[in-house]
Amino acid sequence: MIVKKFQGATENDAILLAKDELGPDAVVLNIKTMKQRGVFRMFKKDFVEITAAVEEKKEENTSNEKKFVIQEADSDKVDAIEEKLDSLHNMLRSRLEEDKTVKNVETLDKKEEPESVAEDKVVKTENKNEKYLSLIRKVLVENEVTPEYAEQIISEVGTSLKKETVIDSILAAVYQKIVLKLGEPENIILNKDKPVVAFFAGPTGVGKTTTIAKIASTFKLTNQARVALITSDTYRIAAVEQLTTYASILSVPIKVVYTPLEMKEAIDEFADYDLILVDTAGRSHKNLDQCNELLDLYNAIKQSETETELIPFLVLSATTRLKDMRSIIEVHKALGELRLIFTKLDETGCVGDILNIVMYSKLPVAYTTFGQNVPEDIKKLDAQAIAKQLLGGNE
Ligand SMILES: Nc1nc2c(ncn2[C@@H]2O[C@H](COP(=O)(O)OP(=O)(O)OP(=O)(O)O)[C@@H](O)[C@H]2O)c(=O)[nH]1
Ligand SMILES: [Mg+2]
Question: Is 368 in the pocket of ligand 1 (CB under 6 A)?
């Protein structure tokens, strides 16, 4: 993993510099506004410093020039991240004190230190690193990261640690690894050349319609975008009414479609819009007929005369069992390159399954939602907040 800091006049400038140097896969780990101190305040403007990271490509492992690699980091170089991790640090320290075995190793270290040879010290520090890592692994598992994925993260971090690494750096390295695994949010970005069509699929009752209302309202009110809605959820009168009500509150047009042909026509009718949000009826991933119907509706969008940027979103409730989420994903893969939305984060204290699902599916996450309020209870994936929560910190 390559970790590096970039400074720019604005957050965007700094991110551009990071992407320029580290490539498009770089993820932002931390953003900090730097205030000029003392006399500099009179001459220089404040600036933004971001910490960005990217997974190293295997074949590039040998060339480290110009790169700042975490295992070479002194603790001062990860200070930005550590700021965020203060509470975790304290938590880990107190957990370490509770943990008898670690305590024993520590007291053993202390007693023997004066006469121990350098080599011995290294062995003991390695032991200690392992203890720290296994403690962090335990915290992850407590937060419902599966033991396999927790182990994967810990071992990936473990192999990159220097022998004399301090606990702060270990924690920072795990945090960075999780942020990297979660990736950048792949939320909706308007396309100036063609309408973006966001197609929402997912099981019944996960919050598809509510999420659409939140997104429609955000784009309409904040971005002044031209937003239109289509619903194919004609199974229940109440479902059509629900979206129609949102459409009238937001004064955006809505079309109800019953067949793939109507879907295609509706898209063409909305050809002048910036964003077309398509709602679908919740389906059981076990009912293949329903799933094929969904696929027909989706494919109809591609048949429209209008050139669009079509994005399939799969909405999952964070409260659904991991095993079920996996099979839901498998069934919906027929729609193409899915982006995930996790809803109902407010109903569960555990975000471990978000990491589990991302590591399982390698699919990007767009948004998370955390309540019934439209439009405020939605945000772009906040990988840093989730990583922090997974390590036991309070967001
Ligand atoms: N607590 C909580 N409730 C939510 C969230 N998002 C949606 N809901 C609620 O979940 C229920 C179902 O939401 P809908 O948006 O109708 O779900 P849907 O996926 O469209 O359901 P179907 O159309 O029946 O498949 C509603 O009561 C919503 O208010 C969320 O983030 N947190
Ligand atoms: Mg619905």
Answer: no
Residue nearest to atom 1 of ligand 1 (CA): 371
Q: Which of 1, 361, 370, 388 is nearest to 177 (CA)?
A: 1
Going residue by residue through the chain (395 aa), what tens digit of pLDDT does each one get? 778 888 888 888 888 898 888 888 888 777 778 776 555 555 567 788 888 888 776 544 444 333 333 333 444 444 545 454 555 666 666 665 665 444 454 444 444 445 455 555 555 666 777 888 888 999 999 999 999 999 999 999 988 777 666 777 888 889 999 999 999 999 999 999 999 999 999 999 999 999 999 999 999 998 899 999 999 977 777 778 889 999 999 999 999 999 999 999 999 999 999 999 999 988 777 777 888 899 999 999 999 999 999 999 999 999 999 999 999 999 999 999 999 999 999 999 889 999 999 999 999 999 999 999 999 999 999 999 999 999 876 54
Mutation probe of ligand 1 site: the residue of 206, 208, 210 with most atoms within 8 A of C-beta: 210
Atom of ligand 1 nearest to the CA of 347: 1
Q: Report the distance separating Cα 70 and Cα 82, nearest Å.
A: 13
**CA–centroid distance, residue 211 to ligand 1 (Å):** 8
199 backbone dihedrals φ, ψ, rounded to 5°? -105, 120
Query: Which residue has the least CA distance to atom 29 on ligand 1?
Result: 372
Using alpha carbons only, what angle is made at residue 172 by residues 125 and 153, rounded to the nearest 5 degrees?
80
Whether the CB of 208 sits within 6 Å of ligand 1: yes
CA-closest residue to ligand 1 atom 17: 207
Question: Is any atom of ligand 1 closer than 6 Å to the C-beta of 209?
Answer: yes
Q: Is the peptide bond before 375 cis (omega within 30 degrees of 0)?
A: yes
CA distance 230 to 280: 9
Expressed in angstroms and rounded, the spacing between residue 317 Cα and the centre of ligand 2 is: 13
